[in-house]
Specification:
Blueprint (H helix, E strand, L loop, with lengths): L2 E7 L3 E8 L4 E9 L11 E2 L1 H19 L4 E8 L5 E4 L9 E2 L7 H5 L3 H11 L8 H11 L1 H8 L3 E4 L1 H10 L3 E3 H4 L5 E2 L4 E2 L1 H7 L8 E3 L4 E7 L2 E10 H8 L7 E6 L3 E8 L9 E8 L2 E10 L3 H9 L9 H7 L8 E3 L17 E3 L7 H27 L5 E5 L6 H11 L3 E4 L4 H13 L5 H7 L2 E5 L5 H18 L3
Parallel strand pairs: 1-5, 5-14, 9-12, 15-21, 21-22
Antiparallel strand pairs: 1-2, 2-3, 4-7, 6-8, 10-11, 13-14, 15-16, 16-18, 17-18, 19-20, 22-23
The chain binds adenosine-5'-diphosphate (ADP).
Adenosine-5'-diphosphate binds next to helix 10 and helix 11.
């Protein structure tokens, strides 16, 4: 049994990877794109049957590549918060899946009573926002007659993507604690569904999957005539945390993709901080790791804007050469508030701005300012975690497309004043699912995961704290101008 399959059911594609346990690396991968539909402004839907069909396809591809008899198990990681409503008898979805990005329940969330908003924050660690699952479930009950009819017959089921896939593969209706912690119905302390919040949203507990530790064996699936365990499931950001071997308080990871996600483990107790989410970072090896999470909507998308709308770049990688060709931005600051500002500001009316432009400002200065803004955004999150949650980031591991940019990673280390550690294997999410599966099957332990991580490069911070603190203070002044009251 040499291999583990990591299934990564993401928002834009479903991928499966074969992980070689002895060689500690991926040896094969398969991918299928997933279609999103946008039936109204702000709405985002997917077809859960397509998600399942493509997941089965990529998993089969991997099993065939290495031979079913060599596969120890399958670990699952997935886009979080998305809701699939389906019929318990057939497993068929009853309506389109509502994707995490969908804003259709924004007004309903804003109108929730203050007391419920407070309970949501205190018990689930989330804000009353359209991103999370519960308002999507309620919307389905109120607007999809087929779902309401199944609910009356006791056959309706609501799953996040992990729960739906595991149900289709194994027949068991279960989820893991990290996915459950994104629904707005899950009590962070007891690791159980919160009866009062379920009643408030009109959701019977029988509609919901049974929450299990992330490293539970969820069931088995028959593939190429062999029963293979599905062992371990986790939301994508949490899987990346494990994939980066961030196992202890203070050991954070940042993903530099279209947006920026910073997760900071806080230990065995949940920590709450205004403007940030509290989430289950993972329940494995017999313990619960909580985390603070901050997200910034626009990071790499600023680079795409420079390339596609301004025509300043041929490709994203060219941003590094241009940024290095000038000593600094010449006083230019960029605030990436294209669609408002996320954590820690939460200002939806803010819009992006470039400040400090002079007659001498060149394309290179602007490109550099856009890259620097990504690093300042991460410092915003880290400061918020420290000031409002008392949680200090002591080490930062990086992944995501833009972590390939050496200038950005060095500037990040300088602005944060801590070292930034880049791994050799950048597929942290899939790696996390593979590690989790190995944990579930007793094939590894956290200490070995810690030792398995291979660093590609460490970016040490500059000693000149004053200089970088000064730049950050100027960035904060630019943010103040972008924010609309
Ligand atoms: P996502 O998973 O959000 O689609 P990825 O992790 O694939 O994103 O990263 C893609 C993003 O990273 C794009 O926004 C792109 O502009 C940015 N990016 C990719 N390479 C670089 C680079 N060398 N320098 C700066 N940004 C980059």
């Amino acid at each position: 049994m040499k291999y583990i399959i990591a299934l990564d059911a993401g928002t834009t594609s479903i991928r499966a990877f074969c992980y070689d346990l002895a060689a500690k690396r991926f040896v094969h991968r398969a991918q299928q794109e997933v279609e999103s539909r946008f039936p109204h402004p702000g709405w985002v839907e997917q077809d859960a049957a397509e998600i399942y069909f493509k997941a089965a396809y990529v998993v089969n591809d991997c099993v065939r590549a290495v031979g079913a008899e060599n596969v120890a198990g399958i670990g699952v990681t997935n886009q979080r918060e998305t809701v699939v409503a389906f019929d318990a008898e057939t497993g068929e979805p009853v309506c389109p899946a509502i994707v995490w990005q969908c804003r259709r329940t924004s007004a309903a969330c804003a109108a929730l009573p203050e007391e419920i908003k407070r309970k949501i924050k205190a018990r689930t660690g989330l804000f009353a926002d359209a991103y999370f699952s519960a308002p999507k479930m309620r919307w389905i009950l109120e607007n999809e007659p087929a779902a309401a009819a199944l609910a009356r017959k006791g056959r309706l089921r609501f799953g996040t993507v992990d729960a739906y896939l595991i149900y289709r593969f194994t027949g068991n209706f279960v989820t893991d604690h990290t996915n459950a912690s994104r629904t707005m119905l899950f009590d962070l302390e007891t690791l159980q569904w919160d009866g009062e919040l379920c009643r408030f949203f009109g959701i019977e507990e029988e509609f919901l999957p049974r929450p299990l530790p992330s490293d539970a064996v969820m069931g088995t699936v028959k593939l190429l005539s062999r029963e293979i365990p599905i062992a371990g499931a986790m939301g994508d950001q949490q899987a990346a945390l494990l994939g980066q071997a961030c196992l202890n308080a203070g050991d954070g990871k940042a993903t530099y993709g279209t947006g920026l996600f910073l997760l900071l483990p806080t230990g065995s107790r949940p920590v709450f901080a205004d403007g940030l989410l509290t989430t289950v970072g993972g329940t494995y090896a017999g313990r619960t790791l909580y985390a603070l999470e901050g997200s910034v909507f626009h990071a790499g998308s600023g680079i795409q804007w420079l390339r596609d709308e301004l025509g300043f770049l041929e490709n994203a990688a060219e941003s590094e050469r241009l940024a290095r060709s000038v000593a600094d931005t010449g006083g230019v600051f960029f605030v990436p508030a294209f669609t408002g500002l996320g954590a820690p500001y939460w200002n939806s009316e803010a819009r992006a701005l470039l400040s400090g432009i002079t007659r001498g400002t060149r394309r290179e200065h602007i490109v550099r300012a856009v890259l620097e803004s990504i690093a300042y955004s991460a410092r915003d999150l880290a400061e918020c975690m420290a000031e409002r949650g008392g949680a200090r980031l002591t080490a930062l591991k990086c992944d995501g497309g833009a972590c390939a940019n050496d200038f950005l990673m060095q500037f990040q280390a300088d602005v944060l004043g801590i070292a930034v550690d880049r791994p050799a294997e950048r597929e942290s999410t899939a790696l996390g699912a593979a590690y989790l599966c190995a944990l579930a099957l007793g094939l590894t332990d956290p200490a070995e995961i810690g030792r398995s991580r291979v660093r590609e490069r460490l970016f040490e911070p500059s000693e000149n704290r004053e200089y970088y603190d000064g730049l950050y203070a100027q960035y904060r002044r630019a943010v103040a101008r972008a924010v609309k009251e």
